[in-house]
Amino acid sequence: MKIKRPKGTRDILPSEVYKWQYIEDVIRKLCTINGYKEIRTPVFEHTELFERGVGETTDIVQKEMYTFFDKGGRSITLKPEGTAPVVRSFIENNIFNDPQPTKIYYITPCYRYERPQAGRLREFHQFGIEVFGSKDSYVDAEVINVGMTLLQSLGIKNLELRINSVGCPICRKEYNLKLKAYLEHKLQGLCKFCQDRYNTNPLRILDCKEEKCKRKLEDAPFMLDNLCDDCKNHFERLKKGLDIIGLDYIVDPKIVRGLDYYTKTAFEIISNDIGAQGTVCGGGRYDGLIEQCGGPSTPGIGFGLGLERLLLILENQGIPFPEEEKPELFIAAIGEKADDKAMELLFELRRLSIKADKDYMDRSLKAQMKYADKLKVKSVIIIGDEEIEKNIIKIKNMENGEVKDALLNDIDDIVNKVRR
RNA sequence: GUGGGUAUAGCUCAGUUGGUUAGAGCGCCAGAUUGUGGCUCUGGAGGCCGUCGGUUCAACUCCGACUAUCCACCCCA
Predict the structure, then answer these.
(1) CB distance A8 to A116 below 8 Å
(2) Distance B47 C1' – A13 CA (angstroms)
């Protein structure tokens, strides 16, 4: 039996890796401009981190984690999301003692045990940013802008930014009671999932796509209309911040995030060009998370952005990638003596940072030329017995077919003619 | 975890109502007179037709199971 890749994983092949490198490059530059530094945390953590950080009641923790015991009997989990590990590191390394706020980004693989489908894998890659230490909602606006700017600067169209506030523990508690009271006598008409949600997480009922649930909820109270003064002011200032930046947004009172730690701001960036999983970027504020993970009481906000989904949109919208870097030179040799010379010249040129290659397949000159053509090199150097006798080489310009001679030992002249 | 679709060369796919040596395009390799790519032409390599079982004189073709994959639900990046 041939060994195949595990379900829900993908190889990023040499022929397509330039796309990833391009996107990563854009991300790094964007983060630097916005004042974010990269952090790299382990791919696995103690299971407890996610249980406490992400929340025991979430789907992620309940059924989607890759958890195992290592040889020392420790319960280990492959990271299912990026925020909790960054929070752990922030606390563990006392980064809260540095000047605040702390602005961090990461690009990391994540692991969730789910049935794969369009835009959903078991191993996927997330770009995320986090800001710790400031409760100013202008920071929320900045964070949202980083996500939007990334997508827009790559040329993506038809994006929808939806924002909401999920309140704080104080006003949410009151609101939950209010919502449950509203739903109490409509419970029978809801789908069976929502009947469960009524007890576990009533907020999520608002998010249900079931028609009958939507109808029942037409005049349900929204969290957004029941915020405490603090949360309300925070949300108003967020909108002002977005207006100043010039970002269009839709206030969507039904946005609910699946992770327990969110407070106040919740947002999603949605595209219709992915398939059923429209969210390419999702995040929000989590003012209680750091304390909950054992750190000092510190506000925070961040997002996760799915890179596979990003690639999907790019492809589905037909957005071209910058061209891949090509080798510039191929050295074709005829015969053994010439091959030695080619080897010598190849490495001499590489030392001068010329992207060059030669034949290692014992091909005929014609086949070497064909191969060079496929590599899309700009020039081919040809060395044979005739050339060695005269101490020269031939340099062929692959774009116009012109052939020039150069002295074999005049490396400067060779470089000039190769580079043109 | 639930539901549906698909499974034939490296890739994208044909394959007639079950019937003899299973095809195409692309890709790969080699040639088209003597040391030169792209275009064209010719030839070649490469498939236990996903796996196992069943029906049949006969299965790539029909049936079943399994596996893989895709899509959708739940949920999320």
Answers:
(1) yes
(2) 24
**Helices A137-153/A17-34 angle, 10° precision:** 150
Instruction: Give the H/E segment covering residue A92.
Output: helix A83-92
CA distance A102 to A200: 34
Residue A328 tokens read as 């510039």
The C1' atom of B27 and the CA atom of A375 lie apart, in whole Å, by 15
Burial of A353 (0-12, 13-18, 19+ CB in 10 A): exposed
- For each of the domains in chain A, give its residue range(s) and CATH number, in order of start: 17-168+228-316 (3.30.930.10), 329-419 (3.40.50.800)
Q: Which nucleotide is nearest to A390 (CA to C1')?
A: B35
Distance A279 CA to B25 C1' (A): 38
User: Which positions on chain B have an atom < 7 Å from some protein CB?
Assistant: 1-3, 28-32, 35-38, 68-77
Q: Is the ipTM of this complex over 0.95?
A: no
Residue pair A166/A235 in contact (Cβ under 8 Å)? The answer is no
Comparing every residue's Cα with the C1' atom of nucleotide B68, the nearest one is A7
Q: Say how many C-beta atoms besides its own lie within 10 A of residue A51's C-beta.
A: 18
Position A127 scores a pLDDT of 98
Token pair of A355 as six digits:
């992207």
Contacts of A401 (CB under 8 A, 6+ apart): none
Burial class for A232, CB neighbours closer than 10 Å (0-12, 13-18, 19+): middle
The set of residues, in sequence order, having a beta carbon less than 8 Å from that of A238 and lying 6+ positions away, is A137, A138, A140, A141, A163, A165, A265
Tell me the pLDDT tens digit for each residue of A358-406: 999 999 999 999 999 999 999 999 999 999 999 999 999 999 999 999 9
A394: closest CA among A351, A350, A330?
Answer: A330
Å from the A59 CA to the B40 C1': 60
Distance CA A168, CA A217 (A): 22
Q: Is the pLDDT of residue A325 over 90?
A: no
Other C-beta atoms closer than 10 Å to the C-beta of A393 total 26
Q: Per-residue DSSP letters for A181-229?
A: HHHGGGGGGS-HHHHHHHHH-GGGGGG---HHHHHHTTTPPPGGGG--H
pLDDT mean over A22-50 = 97
Q: How far is the CA of A165 from the C1' of B25 (A)?
A: 55
